[in-house]
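To: structure subgroup
Subject: Chain for Friday's discussion

All,

I'm putting the inputs and outputs inline so they're searchable in the archive.
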Amino acid sequence: MRYLILFGIFAIILFGCLGQTSPESSNQESNEPEGQECHFVTTQVPVTEEKCEDVSFTEPICETRALNYTITPLSQTDICISGESCVGQSVYTCFSNCRKVMTRCVLIITNDDKIHSGSWTVGANYTIGNYGFIKDPIIQVIKPGESSTFDFHQIYTLGVPPTTAQCNVYLVTPAVIEDCYEVTRTTQECVDVTTYVDEQTEVCE
């Protein structure tokens, strides 16, 4: 009787162990569905990059400048133009017989530029005793390397006591030109460039 009880207990333990399923085998069956197939699909993905390069261009540059010149003033002359035996002579040689005088002032300008012509404006003012007046300016265009004479004269009657005029000749505006030349510059230009790269994705069905 004792042996039968022990045999029954042993049989129960043995059958209980054989009927259990291991956790590992159970998980494997749930993670892998029956009939599933996987493969890789290739697609093209756009990639945009900024590409820059140096670009050269030419542009005109203009500058205003004065022409080089030389001024040569001549001595003032006072000539008698009315009076006994004094006409054409210097007023200082015959004050007593001269009635009218012409005072002349001259300025010579030389254009020292070798290429460009230019326009110069010269003015003059006269003073006789306590009175003064300005003459109309003279404008002349002077070619390269040439000279022009700016001649001013004023006729007046000698007063008592006889007094000659004083003349001042001056440059109003020098000749200016616009020099233009080309300058090459470099700048950087950038553009967006799009390229396509292959990308693989796993697809399971």
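Points worth raising on Friday:
The domain at 66-174 is CATH 2.60.40 (Immunoglobulin-like).
Confidence is low (pLDDT under 50) at residues 21-32.

D.
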